[in-house]
Description:
- By secondary structure, this protein is α+β, with helices and mostly antiparallel strands.
- The chain has four domains: 12-120, Jelly Rolls (Sandwich); 145-266, CBS-domain; 329-456, Beta Polymerase, domain 2 (2-Layer Sandwich), CATH 3.30.460.10; 465-607, Four Helix Bundle (Hemerythrin (Met), subunit A) (Up-down Bundle), CATH 1.20.120.
- Residues 134-140 and 474-491 have low confidence and may be disordered.
Amino acid sequence: MPSAFNFTASPFDCLTSEQRRLVQNHVDIAYFPQGETILALGAQPSHLFVIIKGYVQQFDGNEVVTTYGPDDSFDGRGLVAGKVSSRFVAAEEVVAYQLAKQAVSDLIADNATFGALLFSDLSNKLSALTSRQSQHELQSLAMARVDAAFIHPPHFVDAGTSILDVVKTFQALRINAVLVRDTRTTPVSVGIFTGTGVQKAVLRGTPLDYLAVGELANFSPIGVRPSDLIGDALASMIKHKVRRLLVADGEQIIGILEALDLFGFLSNQSYQINEHILAAQDLEALKRAGVQTTRLIALLHRNGTKVSLIARLVQELNLRLFERAWHLIAPPDLVANSCLFVMGSEGRGEQLLKTDQDNGLVLRDGYVCSQDLAAVCQRFSDALADFGYPVCPGNIMVSNPHWRQSVSDFRQMARLWSVTASPDSLMELAIFLDAHAVCGDTTLLEEVRNAMFDLTFGNDAMLARFAAAIHFFGSSQGWWNRLLNLGDKGDDQLDLKKVGIFPLVHGVRSLALAQRLTEVSTVARIEALVAGGKLPDKLGADLIDSLHFFMGLKLKAGLQELDTGRAVSGGIQTEKLSSLDRDLLKDTLGIVKQFKALLSQRFHLEAL
């Protein structure tokens, strides 16, 4: 009766105390030397195995399908089905727990989550995981710090300023509160004056240009610290019947926390960020609003929000941020005679944390900008970099004339992409396929997109070379060993973009191009392919689940890097994966492998 069984590993971490005792009462330890077949193809398993030490390889014929390491379990599916569909061999000396079949059956009957995580397909596993997260990981937003919410920067006026001048400040800056300094006191007093004070002034009947703001300002504002909890700030507002709090860190005044922003934070923070973006009168105000997006992402992730919803919100906020920045920088005639667009993961709506800029500008034929076009576009790229969107190493930005051309010139580029079909031209084609309009005349972008479809539709040779990029990064088989530290024992990282996201996204993009689909997001493309009978329903659903799992895994790793002051690398430290994430990663990479086989058959890639 082993007492050291690891109940923190998936799927055993969802068991109750009574169910854990059942495991302890029905588990033994087994030993297998290197090379021994633990389960043969077609065998009727009598136990579920949980590895203590060593590694087990699962074979489909002579090919290694996956590798299991410490805390991994196998073969739950064979146990339920009554027959093993693969061959399991000890890759090295193996020590494992073996849990009796009847005990496993009892656990499945009593605990649906355990059964789903043990032997279900990918979609059921992810559904079970989501359910468990909603029960155990949901945190109250009220436990967030005050500085996680939007704090209005302080705008100071002297106590002797007329209320008429303050009202003009309200209108010019689109604010409804200022801080008032009274230098006649020692130390200097700081009060707050709001739109309510204007109403009081009007009721007095005194002309607003003769009434000083210091006479109606509140010099005893209720304050909070940036480190205070949102819940405590809300309680202070309710207790003192105020709609605004002064946020200060010691003697340093940070700004004003308004009730509208606090309630927006507790309900739908994205709406408030959007409002601040639209109200921004300069690039510095936009930058402050943009900072809130990363905080929103972290907050939503911690509270169990689905990654697909986070990505959708982030895309909308980024588009509004880019649009507002472009309107602040570009002259009106340029905005009206062009279409600003984003590409890559930003264009597909699959970007979460800030990444390299990927954008372009298509101009109306014959249009000449009233200002220096190159300078305008450079200023835009510099502004995004200041907002935290790094300069693209491949220079795919509006500041590069190559991605800033007229409709006719872009159509000529599309012709070169299809005719030459070189690696560089196909890469640019792939980038442009994900173009999503930000603002301006969107018909200009559609003209170029339609011309591109006309040139590529039915060109099987070009489509095959285009789709072949799914193999550019080689087989993922080597990553099974790295995933379980069979190879390099160092601080290894798994590049999910290379082994998972890129072949999935580009494979879907290739099928979409072949079918002339106008959808841009990977999910929308998959749904259109399934609806058109070009992709099996089950595989389509698994691809969507896999994509979202990859995105969630990258987001989790990226937020951990930001929390520790490191730059987002995009890599996954495999040794830090939980047993559940490792299990799901195997499943999702297996889906990608299955999809690549379908693509190879569809585009005859084996002949290239």
